[in-house]
Structures are given as C-alpha cells and as structure tokens.
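Work package 3, deliverable 3.1, input record:
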Amino acid sequence: MIQTPHIPIASIVETQNLARDNTPAEPILSIDHVTKRFDGATAVSSVCIDIMQGEFVTLLGPSGCGKSTLLRMIAGFETPTHGRILMRGEDMSHRPAYDREIGLVFQNLALFPHMNVFDNVAFGLRARGRTDGLKAKVQDMLALVGLDGFDDRRTGQISGGQRQRVALARSLVTQPDVLLLDEPLSALDLKLRRQLQTELKRIQQETGITFVFVTHDQEEALSMSDRIAVMNAGRVEQFGSAVDTYHRPATEFVARFVGETNLLRGQVQAASGGRVTLKLDNVNATVTVPAGDSSLGLGTDVAISIRPEHMTLGTGTDQPIAATVLSHSFSGATITYALDSAAGRLLAQVPFQPGGGHPLPAKASVSVGWADTAVTLIPGKPGHSQSDMEN
Amino acid sequence: MIARYIGIAVLLFLPMPIIIVVLSSFTSAGYLSFPIKGLSLRWYAEFLGSADWLRVLGTSALLALIGAVVSTGACFAAAWAVVRHKIRFGATYETILLAPLIFPHAAIGVIMIVTLSSLGWLGTFSGLVLVHCILTIPYAYRPVAAALRKSDAALEEAAASLGARPWRTFWMVTLPAVRPGLVTSLLFTFIISFDEVTVTLFLVGPFVMTLPVQVFSEVLESASPIIAAVSAALVLFTSAMVFILDRVIGIQFFVERD
C-alpha cells in the first residue's frame, strides 16, 4: 500500500525533493523501539513503525493511548526514554525540534495571533533563512490551500476552516520531510470536516510530502490513510493498510475500536487444511473458519470477529446461532438489527430490499450466520483484558 | 433612588481631595489655604526653579525607572519558570512573590533598616532600589504571569517546528504575545515606586531623598503652597501614565482574572 509520490505541482516542491526518492527501500521515518515514561507511567511502550516517503500514515487510538506523545517525540518536543527516532537512517532522537525537517499542524492550530496570514506562512522560510523568492513561495502555497488574496487578513478575522488552511500552508511551505498533524480537524463541524479531509488528501498527493496524521476518529483514519497504526495503552496493536485494519483486525482491540463488530469467543477443537473448527462459548454450536496465518493448538482460546454487514439473517435453523430481534434501525440502504443470543448482543446489518416487506419485528426468532471469507480469527491472549477500553 | 444619590455623592467625593490640591496649588497667597485667595502660577515657578526639588524629582524618576525595569525583568524570569516550566513548588514561589503586598509596610521599613545597615546601604540610592524592587515585585508578577498564562505554549512549539531557534522564537513569538503584560508591569511598577512613601520614609537620609518623602517632610515643617504644586504635578504625571496605559492596553487588562 505504498503510495508512489505524485509529481508535485510546479514550484511548490523543489526537484531535489524528488531526487531523494530514489532509495525507496529506506524508510523516511523509523520509530525504533521507542518508549516514553513520565514519572513512572509509561505513555509509549516499545513502538516500532517504519514510514515510507510519500505515505499517508495515521496513528489511530482512543485518548490517552500515547499517539500524541509519539507525535511529540517525532516533532522533537519530547525525548524518548528508550529507543531511537531515525530519519533517512539518521538518529534524530536528541536533535532539537528546530533542527528537524518536520512540520507540525497543532490541534489548536497555534497560529501567531500578532501576524497576518502572509507573515504566518512566511515564518518558517524566514526562520530557516530561505528568503529567496519568499513572496512567490508563500503565495503559491496560499493558492494550493485555496486562500489566494488572504495575505493581509488577521488570523482572528477568518473562519475556522480558513485558519486550518493557514496552519497547513504554514507548515508545508518549508517542504518538511514529514508533516505531522495532531487531530487538526477535531474542532470543526462534520460537513467542513469531510470537506477538509478530502482536501488534505489532495494536498498530500500533490505535494508528495509524507503525512503522519493523529486521530481518534476511525472513519477519518479509514478514509484518508495509506496505512494505519492502531494504538492502545502505549502500544501499536496493528500497523497495516486501511483495508487490513478493518477486514483483518489483528487483535480484539482493533476489531472493536475500528468500526462495529461481533466478537464470538470459543476454543479450537480441530485444525486441518488451513481451517479450524471452534466450539463457541455459551452456544451449542461448532463453526469452521479459515485459519489465516495463525497456527493454533487444540483447546486454545480464540475469538472470531465478524462485521455487522457480513452477518446473514435467516429464519430457519440452517445457520449456527439462534437469536431474537431486540430492535432495528433503518438507514435507507440498510437495516441494522440488534439481536440477543446466547453468545451475547449481536449486530447485523442487512441490505434493505425495496418491496421486500417490513423489517423484522422485535422478539422475532432468527438464525445468524456469516460468509466464510468475512471471518477474522483472533488468537486470544490470556490476561490481555480489553475491559479498560470498554468503559 | 436614594442609592443612586449616594452613588453620585460618592463619585463626587472620591476625586475631591485631588481637586482641592490642584486648585490650591494655583493660589497667590504665601500659605496653604482653600478656597484660594488669588490666581497665580508662582508656586509652579518656584517648584521648577528649585534645584533641590528638581534633584529629588530626578532621584524619584530614576529610582522608579530602575525599579520598574528590574522588577519586570525578574518577574518575567520567575513567571517563565512557574508558568512555562511548571517548576516544583511553583505555587509557593508565587505566594512568596506576592507577600510584600500583605506585609505591613511599617514592618518592612524596620526590617529594611536592619538589612540595609548590615549591607552598608542605609541612606543610599542602591538601598532604595533594592527596597523598591521588593515592593513592586507583586505588582509586576501578576500582569506578567497572567500574560504568559494567556499566551499559548504551543505558539513557541510551532515556531520551533518551523525552524526558529530559541532566541528567534523568544523575540518573534513569546515577547509579542506577552507585551501587554510587560507594558502594564513597567508602567504600574513605575507608578508604585514613584509614589511610595511609607517604607522609603525609613530609609532616606541626608544624601538621598525621593519626591513624595520630600513632600511629606515639607508638610511637617511648613505649609508652603509649593507642596500643592508638587502634588498637582504628581497627580498630573500619574494620570498621564494611567491614560497611556488605557490607550495602549486598556484598563480591562487589570480587571480580568488570570
């Protein structure tokens, strides 16, 4: 899922930036076993991530999962307790923030209130002494983010979305190797948010700059990222493509945090030919599912994750789990049923067929199954409780 | 309705002493009186023509200037440590810095006599500078710390991430953000120091004298209208400072909580 860098639009990214891309094998940014402790509390725990040139990588996780601390270490505002942060193979861990070619868009934007839009954007070029053609560079960048002619405006005089664009332009104009974005869209209303997500992605592709985006919004992560690092309690639970993160969650946490899911627990009864047979807990049923990459011993505790939209509803007894309808919600194209079963509360999202009659009423008896390919087998980790994130 | 009249009466009463002092400074009589006998500027001429009065005016102005700059500078450093670096016991340090505000001035005067004489600074200009710094620090600390709290630390990080070295960040980002607090502090501490009588009274001597203390001792000895002229000049000067303050920053700054 590595994005090949697009040819940047004229004059925004200099050609030397492209010349450096000739070594695609080396990651532009390596987080190498990075740990950060504050007064005994571990905020980030032995994180390893390699990010390639031109990628859009998202750090996704609930608040307090360590994603912002990791971002601050990459930016140079915190020093790792252990481990190294490498850029193009060079150790940056102890280099001050102003000596790194890393841009940062802050959650609260942190625009300089005493400067106009032009001076805000020009700040980085002036600070780095790159004043040749400064005016043109700043204006090209303002054009890229859709703010032509805003040069003389005060930052207090423009809208939230425009401030967002100024912050982006300010950190892009110096052509950083990596741009970090710390939940920059979280303060905006949904409509503006969607619009800016699309635009961020466009700007990232036009400039070819590597983006590391922090968010707790899984939809945002899925729609924008090339790869997603899902973080929980200071650790990376899974680092992979957006599709894999959703369809092949590696842990229960990822399955639950990214989208809705149905988790069924059980034990391995038999394994053969790339398939395992499970005895499900609390349900008098055995199911056979693809084993995936994992090799599991007999009797091992495992869970399977099935997304609501992959659940199938029947009325007979041909499917493994019997359930009763609790309620439903209709959303135009689909109906989502909340179901009660011996395996716990389940969700099933089924397409709505026009002329196909009314939704199933509450207390209706159904049987629930799923498409074989839609199941993800998650090895259970003894003692790895998820209760902390369910609260 | 009655409350309204009381309110108007209070508002009229408050500036009364100032009005009386200013009016009586224009008397042509040789003694302090009100209402005045005749109109004249002779006491202003005498004030501005007197080398002694001008000398103490100069001493007071220089003392207030040095005191303001030193207090504001020291408080900026202190506020930086407490607000930005969140040093341990920061709240305790803040309380100590604000202590001169609640400490009885007579007691400070006595303590400073002992302290300054052990330093050999009693009755010297340096001694007065030290004492005035102590007295003005609470007035400097509050506006500076408030301005620093109001300005976002993320601004400094943003500047660093854009490649600005620490000194550039300080000049281009931090200083403009806290400028209202610094100007407030400078003007306020200047006024406090320039008008200070109680503690200074303990510490002046034959070689150093400040304007307000000179006014006080003059009033004990004689009732020359020159005192009214000097006082009127002080009132004018202080009002001018407050006016500038209001124009530059707005009086609102003092009313806001930090």
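Chain B has 13 helices and no strands.
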